[in-house]
Design a protein that fits this description.
The complex is a heterodimer of chains A (448) and B (210).
Chain A (H helix, E strand, L loop, with lengths): L1 H17 L4 H24 L9 H23 L6 H23 L3 H19 L5 H30 L19 H19 L7 H8 L2 H28 L3 H25 L3 H22 L2 H31 L10 H4 L1 H14 L6 H15 L3 H26 L12 H18 L6
Chain B lengths: L1 H16 L4 H21 L6 H29 L12 H21 L9 H20 L3 H22 L5 H22 L2 H4 L13
Helix pairs in contact in B: 1-2, 1-5, 2-3, 2-6, 3-7, 4-5, 5-6, 6-7
Classes of the chains: A mainly alpha (448), B mainly alpha (210).
Chain lengths: 448, 210
C-alpha cells in the first residue's frame, strides 16, 4: 500500500499536471505530493521496516527527503517565477520525477536498481538546473550531466566488477551476496570504482567540478534539494557496498580512502570559499566541505561513524534552509555577487536573520547538530591518533567558518534605505527547517 | 573468432591514439559498434532472446549508425574545427595507451585463478577501453571530443557487461540503459546547438573553477 502511494500518487499527479493551466493548482498538486511523502515518512518512522522493508539507512535518507520536499513545496507557494506556464508545468513534473527517483534509490536493496534510480535522478535534475534557460544555466546543466554521466558509468563498471567478484551465483541484492565465496581482489577494485563513480555524484573532490555551477545556477528550491537530498542519495550505494568491504576484512582500506577523499574535499572547499564572490557558489563549496566531513567521519569509524549520520541529517536541513534563504536574497537583490550587495537586515529583516542563523548553524555553532557531529569527529580523530589529519582539518574548518561568516556579515550588515517584503512562505519554509535542525541538535536522536 | 574480434577492438584503441581528426574517431566508433555487434552474435547462447534482440539492435543501429551520424551532423552544423586539439602529442598518447594495456592485462593476470570467471583477454581489453575513454576526456579540450571519450568508455563498459552478463543477464540490459544517458547528452548538444549558446564549442568552462 505504502509503495503504491509513494510511486503511484506522483505518477497520477504527473498526468493531472499535464492538464493544469494554473500555477496555483500545480503548486498545490506538488504540495499534496510532498504531504503524502511526509505522511509516509512519519508512518515509516513509527512502523519501522513496514514501508517496502526499509532499513535504518533507507529510513534516514527517506525522512530527510520527506522533510525537504514539504519545505520546498511550501516555499514554492511564495516563490516568484517569470517562466511561462508550459515551462513551469514541465519543471513541476520533473521535480516530482526527481523525488520519485530519489525515493527509489533510497529504498532499493539491489545495487543494479539503485544505480538505475541514481541515473534517473541525473537526467531529471539536469532539466531542473537548466530551468532559467540562460547561457550559464545551460552550461551548468551540461557540465553536471556530463561529469555525472562519467561518474555513473564508472559506478556501473564497479557494479560489473562486483558481479565478476562472485564466482558462484552472482547477485546484486546486497543481503544475498555470499561473502564466503566472494573474491577480495575483485571486490576491492569494484569498491574503488563505486566510490569514485558515486563519489562524483556526491560532489567529492577531485570530481566535484559540476557541483558549484549546478547548485548556483539552479532555482533556490532545486539547489536546496540537490544539496540537501541528492548528495545523500549518492552516498547510499557507497555505504551499502562499504558493509561488504568491512565484512570481508577490508575495512582499513575503505577508511583510508574515505579519509583521503574527505580531506581533499575539505581542502578544495576551503580554497574556493575564500576565492568565490558568488554567494550561491559559496554555499555549494560548503556542501563539498560537508560531504568531505561525512566521509572523514565514516573514515574514522567508532563514534565518528554515528557522527557521520548526524552530520548527514544536520547538513541536509541547514543547507536546504540556507539555499532557500539565498533564494530570498537573490529575489531581493537580483545579483549573486556579495560584493555588490549589503544591508539585508535593513531591507528584509526576516531573510537577514535567517542568513545569520543559517551561517552560524552551518559552521557548527550550538544548537546545530553539526556542532555535536564535528565534536565527535574531532575527539575520535584524537582518540585514534590521527593528529596530522586533526590539525589540518581544524585549520581548514577555521578558514571555511571565517569565509562563510565573513560573507554573511557583509550581506546582512550595512545601511540601506530600501525596504522589501516577501511572501511569508519564503521565511516559514527555511525557518521550519532550521527549527527542526535545532531541535535535533538539542535532543540528539539515537541511531542504530 | 571471439578472440579475433576482441583483439580488433583493442587495435581500434591504438588507432584512436594516433589520430588527430574527429572524422577518424567517428569511424573508430562505427568499427567498435560493429565489433560489439559481432561479439553479441557470438554470445547468443549466453543471453535470452529478448536481451539478444535488444543488444543486437542497440549495438548495430544505435552504436554503429545513429550515434556516429548524430555526432557527424553536430560537427557539420556547429562548424566545429575538424581537429581534435588534444593537449598531448600522439606519441605520448600511444605510449600511454600501451601502459594502459599493460596495466589492464596485469590486473587480469593478477587475479587469483579461482576467482577468474571471465576471459582475461576480454577483461583486459574492456578495462583498457574504459581507461582510454577517461584519458580522452581528460586530455582534450572540445565538448564533442569529451563526448567521444565518453562513448569509447561506454563501449568498454558494454564489453565488460557482455563478459559478466552470462551470470546475471539483466546486467547487460542495465548497460544498455547507459545509452539513455548518452542520448540525453547528444540531444543537448544536438538540439541546443551548443555552439550557438556557448561562445564556442570548446569547453574550457568545464574545467573552470571560479
Amino acid at each position: 500500500m505504502g509503495g503504491i502511494l509513494l510511486f503511484g500518487f506522483p505518477a497520477l499527479a504527473i498526468l493531472l499536471c499535464l492538464g493544469l493551466s494554473s500555477r496555483r493548482k500545480i503548486d498545490l498538486l506538488v504540495l499534496l505530493h510532498a504531504l503524502i511523502h511526509s505522511g509516509l515518512g512519519t508512518w515509516a518512522y513509527i512502523e519501522r521496516g513496514s514501508l517496502m522493508g526499509m532499513d535504518d539507512l533507507g529510513l534516514l535518507i527517506f525522512l530527510i527527503l520527506s522533510v525537504l520536499c514539504a519545505a520546498i513545496a511550501f516555499y514554492r507557494l511564495g516563490h516568484k517565477d517569470n517562466s511561462t506556464i508550459k515551462n513551469y508545468r514541465i519543471h513541476s513534473i520533473f521535480l516530482m520525477i526527481f523525488v520519485m527517483a530519489m525515493d527509489g534509490a533510497a529504498l532499493a536493496k539491489d545495487l543494479g536498481l539503485i544505480w538505475v534510480f541514481v541515473e534517473a535522478t541525473t537526467i531529471s535534475s539536469a532539466l531542473l538546473i537548466s530551468y532559467s534557460n540562460r547561457k550559464s544555466s545551460l552550461e551548468a546543466a551540461w557540465k553536471y550531466l556530463f561529469i555525472c554521466s562519467v561518474g555513473i558509468a564508472l559506478a556501473f563498471a564497479g557494479i560489473l566488477l562486483l558481479v565478476i567478484a562472485q564466482p558462484q551465483h552472482a547477485t546484486l541484492l546486497i543481503s544475498k551476496i555470499d561473502l564466503s565465496t566472494i573474491s577480495p581482489f575483485w571486490l576491492k577494485i569494484s569498491f574503488v570504482f563505486i566510490l569514485i563513480g558515486f563519489g562524483t555524484k556526491m560532489g567529492l573532490a577531485p570530481l566535484h567540478f559540476w557541483l558549484p555551477d549546478a547548485h548556483s545556477e539552479a532555482p533556490a528550491p532545486i539547489s536546496a534539494l540537490l544539496s540537501g537530498a541528492l548528495l545523500n542519495i549518492a552516498l547510499v550505494p557507497i555505504l551499502r557496498v562499504d558493509k561488504l568491504m568491512h565484512a570481508s576484512g577490508m575495512g582499513d582500506l575503505v577508511q583510508e580512502l574515505y579519509l583521503l577523499m574527505g580531506m581533499l574535499s575539505v581542502f578544495i572547499a576551503a580554497v574556493f570559499i575564500l576565492r568565490t564572490k558568488d554567494y550561491k557558489r559559496l554555499l555549494a563549496y560548503s556542501s563539498i566541505e560537508n560531504m568531505g566531513l561525512i566521509m572523514i567521519a565514516f573514515g574514522c569509524g567508532g563514534m565518528a561513524y554515528y557522527a557521520g549520520f548526524l552530520h548527514i541529517l544536520g547538513h541536509s536541513l541547514i543547507k536546504a534552509a540556507f539555499f532557500l534563504t539565498a533564494g530570498n536574497a537573490l529575489q531581493i537583490y537580483k545579483d549573486k555577487n556579495y560584493e555588490n550587495i549589503g544591508g539585508l537586515l535593513k531591507i528584509n529583516r526576516g531573510s537577514g536573520w535567517l542568513w545569520l542563523i543559517s551561517s552560524a548553524m552551518i559552521i557548527g555553532l550550538p544548537p546545530s547538530p553539526l556542532f555535536t557531529s564535528k565534536f565527535l569527529i574531532a575527539t575520535t580523530m584524537l582518540g585514534k591518533g590521527y593528529y596530522l589529519y586533526f590539525g589540518l582539518l581544524m585549520l581548514l574548518l577555521a578558514v571555511i567558518s571565517w569565509g562563510i561568516f565573513n560573507v554573511g556579515l557583509k550581506i546582512c550588515l550595512g545601511d540601506s534605505e530600501r525596504k522589501q517584503s516577501l511572501n511569508p512562505w519564503l521565511y516559514l519554509a527555511p525557518a521550519g527547517l532550521l527549527f527542526i535542525a535545532a531541535v535535533i541538535g538539542i535532543f540528539l536522536p539515537v541511531m542504530n | 573468432m571471439l578472440e579475433i574480434l576482441i583483439v580488433l577492438f583493442g587495435l581500434s584503441l591504438l588507432w584512436a591514439s594516433v589520430t588527430n581528426m574527429l572524422g577518424t574517431i567517428i569511424k573508430i566508433l562505427v568499427v567498435q559498434g560493429l565489433i560489439l555487434f559481432g561479439i553479441t552474435l557470438l554470445k547468443t547462447t549466453q543471453l535470452n532472446w529478448l536481451s539478444f534482440v535488444t543488444i543486437a539492435l542497440e549495438t548495430l543501429i544505435f552504436k554503429a549508425i545513429l550515434i556516429p551520424w548524430f555526432i557527424n551532423d553536430t560537427i557539420k552544423h556547429n562548424q566545429i574545427h575538424r581537429e581534435v586539439e588534444a593537449s598531448v602529442s600522439n606519441f605520448f598518447s600511444l605510449a600511454l595507451m600501451s601502459l594502459i594495456f599493460i596495466l589492464s592485462f596485469a590486473l587480469a593476470g593478477a587475479a587469483p585463478a579461482w576467482s577468474v570467471k571471465i576471459f582475461p583477454l576480454e577483461f583486459g581489453i574492456a578495462f583498457a577501453t574504459i581507461l582510454k575513454g577517461i584519458f580522452i576526456i581528460i586530455a582534450n579540450k572540445k565538448l564533442i571530443t569529451h563526448l567521444m571519450g565518453y562513448l569509447i568508455m561506454e563501449n568498454g563498459i558494454f564489453l565488460l557487461s557482455l563478459s559478466a552478463g552470462s551470470d546475471l543477464p539483466y546486467i547487460v540490459s542495465l548497460g544498455v540503459s547507459l545509452d539513455i544517458m548518452l542520448s540525453v547528452l547528444i540531444a543537448v548538444l544536438f538540439i541546443k546547438r551548443i555552439r550557438s549558446t556557448f561562445d564556442d564549442a570548446d569547453s574550457p568552462e568545464t574545467l573552470r573553477e571560479d
